[in-house]
């Protein structure tokens, strides 16, 4: 199911953007980011996030990102922003002319963790699939939109009922770039129920 343009809403709208049913463009603003406490000890909570709401407990959201990032930490991808201390994001974060970081951040109760892998700086597009199974979430990525690889599975304590999720783009340092989001779609949950080891018996 495609997403209607009127269903999107902003948490901190950027100055320059455009939204249609098929294409969303964001021009990032300098010194915008999402991060909470862990390791670096600072807190940033000013990145623009564009989202829709749902109370559906089982679904997947797919989007293609294309970007012109060129400065350290420029990033764009998918996000679920519940409030300043509870959110989830996945993106490619530019580092230098040789490599960038494909990674994700889960922030629960005001503390962020960051998991990444280095990829070529030549990559300028990536698909993401964000899936929900009640309070648990899976983020996957794909270079072709067909073959997805798992990036993260996590539990989000505040995602108990209705949630909001979507896309984001930001430039933590003195930079600005154009991020384009296309092929946005809601589907049945592509993250299948676990069929391996049975749950522990309750004592």
What does the model show?
The chain is mostly beta strands. The protein has one domain: Jelly Rolls, CATH 2.60.120. It contains no helices and 16 strands. Strands 1-6-15-8-9-10-11 form a 7-stranded antiparallel sheet, with no helix packed on it. A 7-stranded antiparallel sheet has the order 2-3-16-7-12-13-14, with no helix packed on it. The mean pLDDT is 96.
Q: Which features does this protein show?
A:
Jelly Rolls, 16 strands, 7-stranded antiparallel sheet, mainly beta, about 200 residues, about 0% helix
Secondary-structure topology with pairs:
Elements: E1 9-11, E2 16-19, E3 23-27, E4 34-36, E5 43-45, E6 49-54, E7 58-67, E8 75-83, E9 86-94, E10 99-108, E11 111-120, E12 125-133, E13 136-142, E14 149-155, E15 163-170, E16 178-187
Antiparallel strand pairs: 1-6, 2-3, 3-16, 4-5, 6-15, 7-12, 7-16, 8-9, 8-15, 9-10, 10-11, 12-13, 13-14
Report the helical percentage. Answer: under 10%
Q: Structural class of the secondary structure composition?
A: mainly beta
Helix and strand pattern:
EEEEEEEEEEEEEEEE
How many strands, what sense, and barrel or not for the largest sheet? Answer: 7 strands, antiparallel
**Which term fits the overall shape?**
globular
Radius of gyration: 16 Å
Q: Name the poorly predicted regions.
A: none
> If helices are DSSP runs of H or I spanning 4 or more residues, what is the number of helices?
0
Strand percentage, roughly?
over 45%
Indicate the CATH architecture: Sandwich
Total domain modules = 1
Total number of strands = 16
Kindly state the mean pLDDT as a whole number?
96
Q: What name does the CATH topology carry? A: Jelly Rolls
Strand arrangement within the widest β-sheet reads 1-6-15-8-9-10-11
| Distance N to C terminus | 43 Å
Give the C-level CATH assignment. Mainly Beta
């Amino acid at each position: 199911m495609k997403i209607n343009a009127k269903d999107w809403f902003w948490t901190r709208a950027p100055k320059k953007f455009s939204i249609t049913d098929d294409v969303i463009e964001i021009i990032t603003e300098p010194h915008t980011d999402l991060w909470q406490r862990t390791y670096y000890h600072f807190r940033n909570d000013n990145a623009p996030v564009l989202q829709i709401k749902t109370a559906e407990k089982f679904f997947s959201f797919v989007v293609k990102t294309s970007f012109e990032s060129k400065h350290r930490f420029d990033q764009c991808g998918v996000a679920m922003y519940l409030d300043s201390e509870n959110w989830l994001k996945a993106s490619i974060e530019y580092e230098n002319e040789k490599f960038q970081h494909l990674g994700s951040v889960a922030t629960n109760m005001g503390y962020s963790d960051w998991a990444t892998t280095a990829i070529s700086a030549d990559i300028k597009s990536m698909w993401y699939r964000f899936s929900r199974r009640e309070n648990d979430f899976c983020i996957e990525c794909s270079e072709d939109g067909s073959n997805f690889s798992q990036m993260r599975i996590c539990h989000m304590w505040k995602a108990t009922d209705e949630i909001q999720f979507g896309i984001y783009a930001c430039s933590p340092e003195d930079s600005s770039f154009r991020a384009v989001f296309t092929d946005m779609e809601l589907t049945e949950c592509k993250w299948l129920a676990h069929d391996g080891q049975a749950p522990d018996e309750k004592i």
